[in-house]
Structure formats: C-alpha cells, structure tokens
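[INFO] parsing input record for 4-alpha-glucanotransferase
[DEBUG] input buffer:
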Amino acid sequence: MKKAQRQEDRMQRGAGILLSITSLPSPHGIGTIGREAYDFVDLLAEMKQSYWQVLPLGPTGYGDSPYQSFSAFAGNPYLIDLDELVRQGLLTEEEAGSADGETGSLKISEAEKGKGTTEDPQGGTGKLRVLLLPAI
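[DEBUG] output buffer:
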C-alpha cells in the first residue's frame, strides 16, 4: 500500500510554463532573478500552476545561446538583479548604472530601498517547482 501511494504521488499531474528568465520584463534589456521573477512565481502560484521550466542558467557562449555555456556550474552574470543589490546597499546607483553602460540609469525610490526580495516566492505552500533540466 505504501509503495502504491508513493508512486501515485510521483505520477501526479500538473501544469506549468516554459519561460526563460531573460524573457521577464526589465528596464535593462533582459530579465533577471530579481523582483520580476518573484512576481512571476507569485502569478504562477495564483494561477494554480505547478511548474516553471526555465532554460539553462549558465554563462552563454557563442551567439548568447543558453545551450552553449562555458561552464556547467557557473551562473550567468546577466541574471543578477542590479536593482536588488542597490536596494540591499551592496552597490550604489552609480556603480550599478556603470555596469549597465549608462551612469545613473537606475531609478530606485527611497521607499523601495531596503525592501529585499528574500520572502518565500511560493508563499510557503511548497507547490511550485522550478525545473532546471539539462540541455539535450
């Protein structure tokens, strides 16, 4: 009986979406693992979705393809949310702006500073899974 129950739990159907993190909205050209990603996870949970399948997250190679990574273990630095680093006081707006190519391009209000995105994006439900699948 226990074995059948475990198999049933593993075989439970669910719905989800395939969306590259770089396709999330951002004022910097590509999406990041920042506020927009957390908001997207909240939206998926609200829509009762079980899965978010993302493309590979490694540094991109020729043609910025996520499937031609230089490393199987490193993360893509393009996915770092500079706005969040400014909010946490780890970067100044000028430092983050120079990384973006335009000094002072980040506009973060005083009300947003100090608001981290460390809360559980799943709201503690544990129902949403992010699928990190290897490229085939």
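[INFO] The chain is about 25% helix and 10% strand.
[INFO] shutting down worker
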